[in-house]
Sequence to fold (249 residues):
Amino acid sequence: MRLQFFLVLSGILMLTCMAYKPVIIIHGVWDLRFSLNFLAEQIRQYHIGTEVHIIDILHGWRSLAPLWYQVKKFHEQMLPVMQKASDGVILIDDFLRLIFPQYIKETVYEVFYSRIGQRVSVANYWNDPHHQALYYKYSDYLPYLNNEINDSYSKEYRQNFLKLKKLVLIGGPDDGVITPWQSSHFGYFDSEENITEMRDQIFYQQDLFGLHTLDKGGRIKIYEVPGVYHTNWHHNMSVIKNCILPWLD
Fold:
């Protein structure tokens, strides 16, 4: 059974209230057990009294497990913290996307868009602008979260997304891994590989999962930060102090 809960891909910060709430940090693809310790320590040091939890499962190659499986396992680990936090929690997701050489990117859809390929997490959120028919046929994760494909959970996905009090999106042009980097802000390629910004996306304009509603309600904050490589986001003190810590109050 799919859980009434989901994780959002790329460099994203999700908040559910505006007080001293527990912080839950989730690692990304290929992250090691200690990868997010620095971020956790900075939060504890500069936001004294904040309870910080790093979800300590599915590291390294295990992060290639199917995303629905990962969502279930992350939810099991997070649930005790959430049950004690009546006023909500803050979730920091440091999801790492893989970068492929051009010749692989042009052919990887043949593997990813298959029943076997969808057993790998990276394939679950692979959205190839040149092969949209295959994306909708085989992808069993991202188009469902985006409510681009309706199923029995579509209404609940939208309702749960709209429970967010604040959605903080952090990304920048020097990321070097997330492609395009604007996908950190819900932008993406069109079929000509031109960037379609968030507010021009069909899922935004049709408000398929509530992104438009959040935006119009002033509940989205977007940070565009130059000069930060992908693996440095959670070690960059400027990002931590200016883009994360202010939202913990």
